[in-house]
Amino acid sequence: MNLEQLRIAIRPRRDWEAVDLGLQMARQWWWPMQRIWLLVTLPWILMGLLLPADSLWLVSLSLWWCKPLFERPLLMILSQAVFGFTPSTKEILRALPKLIFNQIFASLTWRRFSLTRSMDLPVIQLEGLRGKERSNRLQVLHRDDSGPATWLTIIGVHVESFLMISGLALLGLFIPAEVDLGIDSLEFWGESKTGGLLLLFFSYSAMALIGPLFVACGFSLYLNRRVKLEGWDIEIAFKRMVQKRGLQTFVLLAAIAFFNLLPQSAPPVWAADERAEIREQIIAIRNGPDFHQMKTHKIPKWQTDKEPELDSGFIEALFKLLEAFGRFISSISGFAEIILWGLVLALVAWVALRYGSWLSRFPQLLPRKRRQYYQPKKLFGMAVTEESLPTDVSAAALDLWQRQQPRQALALLYRASLARLLQSGAPLREDHTELECLKIAKQQSLPADALAYFSHLTQVWRQLAYGHELPDNTLAESLCRNWNHHWPDGARV
Amino acid sequence: MTQVPPSDSEIQAADEPREKSDTFEQAYQLVQALRNEIQRVVIGQQTVVEQVLLALIARGHVLIEGVPGLGKTLLVRTLAQCFGGRFARIQFTPDLMPSDVTGHAMFNMKTQEFEIRKGPAFTNLLLADEINRAPAKTQAALLEVMQEGQITIEGTSHPVDAPFMVLATQNPIEQEGTYPLPEAELDRFMLKVLIQYPEAKDEETMLLQLGKNSDEKPVRQLIKPTHVLSLQKIAQQITVDPAIVEYIVKIVRATRNWPGVSRGAGPRASIALLNGARAYALMNNDRYVTPDDVKAVVLPALRHRLLLAAELEIEGVSVDQVLQDISKSVPAPRK
Which CATH architecture has domain B238-335? Predict the structure, then answer.
């Protein structure tokens, strides 16, 4: 390695300055890098295109996965170009198998997701380290400048994704709605070959754009770290001195330095006054400008927490006012709390009054009540409880009929029947008409003769109640007599 | 509130003579024959046929709502043919004028006199097709004839022939370029009937009948227009217990205080319910009105008279749902 041939200015740089240098390097050797990238990746793509339409996304994925391999020829170009020698395409292609298969397994598995990949690549490729040596070396390298390497990967992933999505979106915007390329429906892994091809094209383009920048920046960080560790700048400075002053001066200086650094076996003996003089001289030199050179670096610092400068008098007055207000509030807080709670309760009451009836229109909004069946005590204005009925319904009804009270007689029979129906659990409501009651009765497991009796009774009752038509005497008497038979006492249908 | 039941002597007095019973039986048979004859031609749509007949018997007018092509015109023409009545159809359009409906006075140059040219409204059955396509002034031309049974032209009132019935149709889906019927007009319709698509089986029967010669089974004229008037008279004489009247009033009044209803039904609704229940009883061979008859006509008689509040409409609650809730809330007549 001949440091004099370096095409870049060698000096210790701050981390992001090194990234900047990396970008410059990528610009400088952009086309050779692009050419090699295309030569290496295109066969991969072309082979991938032979896959069926629904597997095209696999090509994009594999391309992305094997990116660490495709970055190696780029690093080879850069590493030689910084020393003034750009390798020819033929040389790179010849060296390609060796480059690619170098630690291939580790690079594609657990190291694939290393965030400092760009900075680590030169260690395995240029220094050829592996195993423990490699990790020791990386430990030394990562002590500084590895932060930007991590950020470089994160930013790279994002920019690459944005470029790909933007490309797809831009294309989608220019394509008429009638043409379905699978962009709108994101059918990149469906049966539409166009969708898969577009995804491949845009992901490949994004990788081609970002890849060289990523490799160059990582390499620049690596170089910067070595410059700092190994003092390349000092070495170069010495070499330049040698060139300028000649070899003899350099040897003399080196000898002086060497001997000064060696432990002195017999230190020179100085007189006491000489010693004091020397000490004074040393103190003078220490206090002199050589040891007090001030260099000013200006770094912008965002002062987010700077308090606004306000008139202190105004602030004090404001604080006093606030304190007074606080005291006032605390003095009335109990009262205010009562008022506030009162307001809240009033609001709740108002909402309940205003919208309560409206809410009741939507039973699904209200808390679900346990379904409960209440036996009505009255139906159609008639008492239908067991207690309101006479012990012998048939006899009582017949008695009423014979006393020329036909309506009361039939009403008794009808409500007694309803009472029995209710006891059996028939869901009768107040709004049910006679025919609806009959319909519900038919749904109950009533004995056939009881149902027929109830049906007949309903018909006769309706005629009497609404049509004012008196039933035949025989029919009415038979209805009265048969009630006990069809609804026996204590019978629960 | 307790209803005092009529005494037994009253019941005895109300017992009808035998000959009246025969007339009633004949009337029922006639209505059945009419219904069967119409249903022979208008396949499916039993409810619609029943409700249109009900309105005819109850001297009411019908607003039919449904998509085009469901046989509304056929129904009206068949009904007219069944009782030998005259039938006129007006297609309501935005440029239709009131005089196009009622008629107008025209100066006869020969006799040097004004002549009254009667409009299509002078008929027995008037089909106002797509009534909401004409502006309000033309719709209002029907107000007088629907309520009074007469048309005033140039200051002279001309009665229309009885029976007279308006059947208006409107399309529920196309609202662009339509004029919603004003409340006064809506209230004059006794029933609002919703006509639905026929059942699959009915549709198949319809298609099969299309292939046959239409002259094979012409619509038979079963009765004369005067018989319709008799039917209407018989229906009017059907017994109505005071409890039923009370029940009707309760239902109609409940619509006025019901939450979510911004405008309830008016007294015309009570009249429509009562007349409708009477006609329904006749159609079911009942000589008296029962709460079941009232319940059967609550939906068609009230659904166009209620205006739901905006919040219920937004929630998608239909008028029919509200009406069902209302009839559930009103207890059946207390005896």
Answer: Orthogonal Bundle (1.10)
**Residue A309 domain-assigned?**
no
Torsion of CA B331, B332, B334, B335, to 10 degrees: -160
**Domain extents in chain B:** 18-237, 238-335
Ordered alpha helix ranges (H), A175-297: 193-230, 232-245, 247-261, 272-287
Cβ within 8 Å, pair B3-A381: yes
Out of A380, A434, A466, closest to residue B244 by CB: A466
pLDDT of B242 over the 80 cut: yes
Distance of alpha carbon A427 from alpha carbon A445, whole angstroms: 13
Do B287 and A467 count as a contact with CB atoms less than 8 A apart? Answer: yes
- Local confidence band at A373 (pLDDT 50, 70, 90 cut-offs): very low
The answer to the question of residue A333 being in a domain is no
The reply to whether A303 falls in a domain is no
Q: What is the DSSP letter of B193?
A: E
* pLDDT of B7: 42
Residue A396 is part of which domain span?
Answer: 378-486
pLDDT digits (tens, 9 = 90+) for A424-464: 777 888 788 888 888 888 887 778 888 888 888 888 888 88
Output the six-digit token pair for A192: 């539409």
Superfamily of domain B18-237: P-loop containing nucleotide triphosphate hydrolases (3.40.50.300)
Backbone angles phi, psi at A129, to 5 degrees: -85, 150
> For residue A371, is pLDDT > 60?
no
* Residue that is last in its domain, among A185, A206, A234: A234
Is A287 inside a domain boundary?
no
Query: What average pLDDT does this structure show over B285-292?
Result: 87
Contact A432 B332 (CB under 8 A): yes
- Cα separation values, B158 from A129, A242, A274, Å: 116, 133, 149
Q: What is the mean pLDDT of chain B?
A: 81
Count Cβ atoms below 10 Å from residue B224 Cβ, excluding itself: 12
- Using the CB atoms, write b or e for A131-166: b if 16+ within 10 Å: eeebeeebeebbeebbebbbebbeebeeebeebbee
Taking contacts as CB-CB distances below 8 angstroms, the residues of chain A near B241 are 465-466, 468
d(CA B109, CA A155): 97
The interface predicted TM-score of the complex, written ipTM, equals 0.73
